[in-house]
Amino acid sequence: MATAHSQFGDESQETRSEMANETSTQTHHVEDVEIQEWLESLDSVLEASGPDVAREILERLRAHATVNGIDLPFTANTPYTNTIPLRLEPLFPGDQALERRIKSLIRWNALAMVVRANREEHNIGGHISTFASAATLYEIGFNHFWRGRSEAFEGDTIYFQGHAAPGMYARAFMEGRLSKEKLENFRRELKPGGGLSSYPHPWLMPDFWEFPTVSMGLSPLMAIYQARFQRYLENRGMKPATDAKVWAFLGDGETDEPESLGAITLASREKLDNLIFVVNCNLQRLDGPVRGNGQIIQELESAFRGAKWNVIKVLWGSEWDPILERDSEGLLVKRMGELVDGEYQKLVVSSGAYVREHFFGHDPRLLKLVEPLPDEALRRLRLGGHDPKKVYAAYKAAVDHKGGPTVILARTIKGYGLGESGEGKNVTHQQKKLNEDELKEFRSRFGIPLNDQDCIEVPFYRPAEDSPEVQYLRARREVLGGYTPARAVRSKPITTDNEELFREFHDGSEGREVSTTMAFVGMLRKMLKDPEIGKLVVPIVPDEARTFGMESLFRTVGIYSSVGQKYEPVDVNTLLYYKEAKDGQILEEGITEAGSMASFIAAGTAYSTNGINTIPFFIYYSMFGFQRIGDFVWAAADMRTRGFMLGGTSGRTTLSGEGLQHQDGNSHILALPVPNLRAYDPAYAYEIAVILQDGIKRMYKDGENIFYYITVMNEPYVMPAMPAGAREGILKGMYKFRAAPNKKSKLRAQLFGSGAILNETLRAQEILEQKFGVAADVWSVTSYKALYIDGIETERWNRLHPTEKARVPYVTQCVGDAQGVIVAATDYLKTLPNMISKWMPRRMATLGTDGFGRSEGRASLRDFFEVDAKFIALATLHELALDGKIEALVVEKAIAELGIDPEKWNPVIS
Ligand SMILES: Cc1ncc(C[n+]2csc(CCOP(=O)(O)OP(=O)(O)O)c2C)c(N)n1
Ligand SMILES: [Mg+2]
């Protein structure tokens, strides 16, 4: 009979037995006495001379075979068996029985949390089956490996699989760190007293979670760059070298995300032996098998081995060892490698009799191997990932491994222990409820001390404080230096306000034409020399340093390389040669915005992870930022990352020549949804200086959990000096840059410009004045986002305080009394200025760059998108006509006079 928790099953299947017979005849033909002799001689070499000699012989044989024309297929795979053989297994140091009891209670509480939450509120969600499959993988780490963070030791860094969160909460409950009430409010943070977030979210649980992991694929990439960043800090002398590790837990389905495996060669190239991946290979994802028709474990093994990782497969539990021992011909290992995952998934939910027939029955010699075992024993053959001894051995080998990263591929069963309706079933990922029988079965299987009546209520269960279970797990954590996960701000605030550092940039460029990018790089250069913050600055570039004129930094601060520079650079005789150095400061990441962002996150959270206030400046092609790696930005926000993202070559019409894939009119829109991100579109050097200075102070002195997005451009123009009193407006989002010279004119206008388009606005001001007698004030809008947030905040306050004196949005304070029509022009979508139009005293006309770019020069692009001075002038005149201040005919004449073709292409749709 198939039982709920069977390892294999009992249904028979005709076709399967036919296939089995067919294959077994073929194998007979190969496996003869000769093979036996070869195997025996290898055994004797192994015994007499050890594995090194055996390896040498095998390598020579392979070479010999190739020379003799035997075409050996390439394989990066090892057989489908455990990497660590029984004889090399270390002794398990813990109390196995007690650890199992603790683990069972954690299993129960994790399950109870989800089941209770869904009883309380239908479909509130939560996952049971992921943690059920991974419980042993986590518990071995908690009890034996993961060191907490303390003053004395930085501790290990762990990326917990997002949907295994209930298991982490259940453990923290057992540890006495989370109350029953908190568990009761799983997925209900808004309940009085607070609750627990669905997944790891540092934003929601800043004392607990460090890394958001549930958007799949992000955590493996972040973990790789985290491990590399630890080395960067060590090599730069910013922290002592330690044996702290970075562990990342991944689902096997998760490895299909391109980000998951996308940077694995970086880890081996950098010899990151401080990095360990654990892939929970339950062979299932959400909808069904990960590779029903293949073998995900073998596929991953070859990918990781090909990338030179140390791969440890943990496939079979200890019960298999004696059988494997009897398998002198290697038939069982061969058989193990023949099944596809879809077949394995079926076997794990089938009975012992089924296993005998369909797995071992394939070959009479295999059947013989398990002859002494009753069906019940076959059913109880565990998988490696559920066997503490095997998992311990793998973890021990991983932490002891030197010279490169390790991946552990652990085979488990999804929904382990969940009974008939869950274990190993395709629907198990979303299982949130258990019926009474299933609950009782789970209770009995894991020995939870609850009677039938109590059990169906699914209460949380924690043994008394002085129970052996609680004492043991507390003692283990004490030995390991404290609890994990736990997050804290570990750095001390910086002391300076940097007033002096940035002051020189308030003066303007004195007639010299420079771009805002050049201005920013000048500030970066100066920051790097600063005695307090200089060392903390981490410049990050995805192969674009020359694009942004940063190559002078190569020489002055060096490009980080863990091995220094093993070659003489081709340009060594030049002033700005390509200098790589072990203590290099620049992270030149190569062409990977995702990798660079992961470095940005590691550096921007080092204030918490490492207690170091590193200040990352990640500069990149703005179009390849939010649009390409937006989900990493969201994760960065959740993690309370601090630092500056700089969208270079930005502005749809400001980046000339590059065409529609490069020209960015989107990023300021995409920056809107990130709540703690402050986004600026500055036009002039002093604006950037003010924003950077304030940002560093807010983040690193005042400890605010915000970060910055600043667009910088490559259009050169003269940088003016900062007008008196502009500082506050720059930070709040707008200030009057140049008032109309002729205040007496009857025709008035307020013009808003941002970034490089501010200069077009200023030219429009002149055209309007000179040709049409319109007196226009020009405003620099540095941040529509800031104005918008202030507007909606003010509205909200007024709504909630109806009897108090109404507050006025900042933008209304600026232009509420200003005269004339209002026209805004931006290098981004029109929607950006439109967001604030409701707080204007009157209608607002908007010019923007909705549509696809073109490979053209700036002038043509601005004409095409209708955001240049003449179109701003036209929009102003049109508004005046709408207000009845001038005749429509005047506007029509102006169109001709300004040289505008009314039948021109519509940029929005062409
Ligand atoms: C980027 C992303 N896409 C989709 C999901 C939805 N999702 C959550 S869990 C899951 C299946 C996970 O399977 P696997 O990685 O094998 O983890 P397991 O639960 O089997 O350990 C999916 C598709 C997600 N969280 N993130
Ligand atoms: Mg899976």
Model description:
- With 910 residues, this protein is an alpha/beta fold.
- It contains 37 helices and 20 strands.
- The chain has a six-stranded parallel β-sheet with strand order 10-7-11-12-14-13, sandwiched between helices.
- Helix 4 crosses helix 21 (468-479), helix 8 (218-235) crosses helix 25 and helix 25 (593-604) runs parallel beside helix 27 (626-638).
- The termini are far apart.
- 50% of the residues are buried.
- It binds thiamine diphosphate and magnesium ion.
- Residues 251-253, 282, 284-285, 290, 414 line the site of magnesium ion.
User: Structural class, from secondary structure content?
Assistant: alpha/beta
Q: What is the average of the pLDDT values? A: 94
DSSP E strands, number: 20
Quickly count the helices. Answer: 37
Low-pLDDT residue spans: 1-27
Strand order of the largest sheet: 10-7-11-12-14-13
What characterizes the major β-sheet? 6 strands, parallel
Strand residue content: 5-15%
* Ligand list: thiamine diphosphate, magnesium ion
Helix content: 40-55%
Q: Span from first to last CA? A: 67 Å
